[in-house]
Amino acid sequence: MNLVARALGMSEVAKAAGVTGVGLYKTLGENGNPEFATVLRAIGAKGMRLTAKPPRAKPKPKKKSVA
């Protein structure tokens, strides 16, 4: 995430996420432990969206008919 924020402009991301530049560097750094809300704000700051979807359901095996 730190590389993404740097590539997108760390100060812009920090401002839009509502944190300081130093705080964002620390949060997204190697030893950082960002809150999920901070990550979402940083992603949203550049107009991106994080989505999740369930894995594809495996087809149910067909029951063998007893004849």
Write a compact overview of the structure shown:
This protein has helices spanning 2-8, 10-17, 21-28, 36-45.
Query: How are helices and strands ordered from N to C?
Result: HHHH
Helix share of residues?
40-55%
Give the CA-based shape. Answer: rod-shaped
Strand content: under 5%
The separation of the N and C termini measures 59 Å
Low-confidence stretches: none
Number of contiguous helices: 4
Structural class: mainly alpha
Average pLDDT, all residues: 79
Number of strands: 0
Q: Summarize the biggest pleated sheet.
A: none
Radius of gyration, in Å, reads 20 Å
What is the topology?
Blueprint: H1 2-8, H2 10-17, H3 21-28, H4 36-45
Description:
It is a single chain. 15% of the residues are buried. 49% of the residues lie in helices and 0% in strands. The chain is built from 4 helices and no strands. It has helices at residues 2-8, 10-17, 21-28, 36-45. The model has no long low-confidence stretch (mean pLDDT 79). It has a domain at 2-45. With 67 residues, the chain is mainly α.
